Structures are given as structure tokens and as C-alpha cells.
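Progress note, sequence design subtask.
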């Protein structure tokens, strides 16, 4: 008998199964740095529906802690590549694509600033 492997590298069918791979986008990659009060950033935080200016330093530290914890638990952490098309919303990588066992389905986000982000996920 020829041994075969049916285990995929991802497990998109489950929201509770073991996490094997995860796509992340740091606040730095998403353009949070320098996006304080009065700073335009990649889409002003006010224009994107944020209730206050993001705290870049705090968010970046929390992101790094999250990535470290995921790696400690055995997940492969994949970073979304930097792009000038990404906006502050890019840190929420769950929204513009849908993971399946057969690959990623790119969504069509309702917020115009997120359309390019879905292409980045591809």
C-alpha cells in the first residue's frame, strides 16, 4: 500500500480546531504608525470609523505578544506583506478573506479601503 497524506496545511473548515497557520497584519504594516491626532496615515482614522486615534505603540506591542503566543503554541504565523494600499483596518485579517481546506476565498469587502486588502490576501 502506498502511504498517502490527506492532512492539509490549513484547517479553514473549523473555528475551534487546532490552529496550524494564521495570517496577521501588524499595526506597523497597516499604517498605524504616525496616524495620531491630525495625521492622515493611510486613510484618516476618523474616515474609517475609528472612535479615536489608534495607540500605535500599545497596538504594536499587543500584536507582537499575540504572534509570540501563537508561535509558542505551534502555529505558523504568516505576515501580510506591506503595501501602500493597506489601511488601518488591515490588522483585522479575518474580514477580507475566508480560509478553507482548499485555499483562500477572497471576499468583496463593503468598505472601499478594504478591497485592495483582499487582493493582498491572495
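Output:
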Amino acid at each position: 500500500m502506498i502511504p498517502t497524506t490527506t492532512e492539509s496545511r490549513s484547517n479553514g473548515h473549523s473555528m475551534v480546531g487546532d490552529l496550524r497557520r494564521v495570517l496577521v497584519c501588524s499595526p506597523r504594516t497597516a499604517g498605524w504608525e504616525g496616524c495620531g491626532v491630525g495625521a492622515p496615515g493611510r486613510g484618516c482614522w476618523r474616515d474609517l470609523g475609528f472612535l479615536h486615534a489608534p495607540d500605535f505603540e500599545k497596538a504594536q506591542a499587543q500584536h507582537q505578544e499575540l504572534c509570540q503566543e501563537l508561535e509558542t503554541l505551534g502555529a505558523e504565523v504568516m505576515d501580510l506583506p506591506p503595501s501602500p494600499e493597506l489601511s488601518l483596518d488591515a490588522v483585522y485579517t479575518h474580514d477580507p478573506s475566508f480560509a478553507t481546506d482548499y485555499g483562500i476565498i477572497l471576499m468583496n469587502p463593503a468598505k472601499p479601503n478594504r478591497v485592495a486588502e483582499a487582493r493582498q490576501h491572495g
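Strands lie at 21-24, 76-79, 97-100, 103-106. Work on this subtask will continue into the next period as scheduled.
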